[in-house]
Amino acid sequence: MPSSKPLKTAPKGTAARAVPKIAFVADTTAAAREAKRACVRAYGNAPADEAHIVVALGGDGFMLHTLHGHIDGAPIFGMNVGTVGFLMNEYRPDGLQERLARAVTVKLHPLQMTARTKSGKRHSALAINEVSLLRATGQMAKLRISVDGVERLPELACDGALACTTAGSTAYNLSAHGPILPLGSRLIALTPISAHRPRHWRGAILPANATIRFETLEPEKRPVNATADHRAVTNVVELEVAEAKDRTVTLLFDREHNLEERILREQFAS
């Protein structure tokens, strides 16, 4: 279950607050590389496998890449030197240690994708934002959707469909006109992408412990590909999505600009 609480950098009872070991990682852009050089000059750079905190310098795409590399590992504090930066904090290298000491933690369970392809091969991947299915040709996809073993939609004619986490509800899901989910809501959004039939179906909001099963109808004529964040699988005939309850990613945010407040603001954005 997502949670928010102040980051602790020293155990109770210690006379002085421990200084955390920080590892800086950066995207390949010139701005991100220069930001990393400035941070390393000021604070040093611990090896990633020894760090208490990883500071990611880039945009949301790089932040997702970094989170995937630290599932069940050190918390990630992102600083935006990219474009949108929804998952990032403001880039301000001055006073970074004080910001980290005051930061609020957000713990999220990713989604587990298990896909079977036309050849019978199975693929598994984790998604912090969403698992999506998309038509692979000019033909619209046709999908059968079941939830917890019960068929809920015998045929959805569409460009695709997606299932997303609360954090991912403001990403691709929002572009597909899906609902924005409050951070602590323990929900998954199931959203169609350009649905043709049934024309007025707008998706569903499901409990986080639900298992969603997609079946590709007419896979020879209407092939479908699947993606878990940036991991893609082609020619998918069957796919299951469920919360990975035993896996956790930890994000850090400035207290005054935490993720819960950002998601709430999105619900009132014009």
Overview of the molecule:
The structure is a single chain. The chain is α+β, with helices and mostly antiparallel strands. It has two domains: 3-108 and 248-266, Probable inorganic polyphosphate/atp-NAD kinase, domain 1 (Rossmann fold, 3-Layer(aba) Sandwich), CATH 3.40.50.10330; 111-243, Tumour Suppressor Smad4 (Sandwich). It is 16% helix and 39% strand. The protein has helices at 30-43, 60-68, 96-102, 172-175, 259-266; strands at residues 3-6, 22-26, 53-58, 76-80, 89-90, 104-108, 111-117, 122-127, 130-135, 141-147, 150-158, 160-164, 187-193, 204-207, 212-216, 224-228, 231-233, 236-243, 249-253. Strands 1, 2, 3, 4, 5, 6 and 19 form a seven-stranded mixed β-sheet that branches. It is elongated. The model is unreliable at 1-16 (pLDDT under 50).
Task: Estimate the global geometry from the Cα principal axes.
Answer: elongated
CATH-defined topology of the largest domain: Tumour Suppressor Smad4
Mean pLDDT over the residues: 92
Treating each run of at least 4 consecutive H or I residues as one helix, how many helices? 5
CATH architecture of the largest domain: Sandwich
Q: State the CATH class of the largest domain.
A: Mainly Beta
Structural class category: alpha+beta
The CA-CA distance between the termini, in Å, is 29 Å
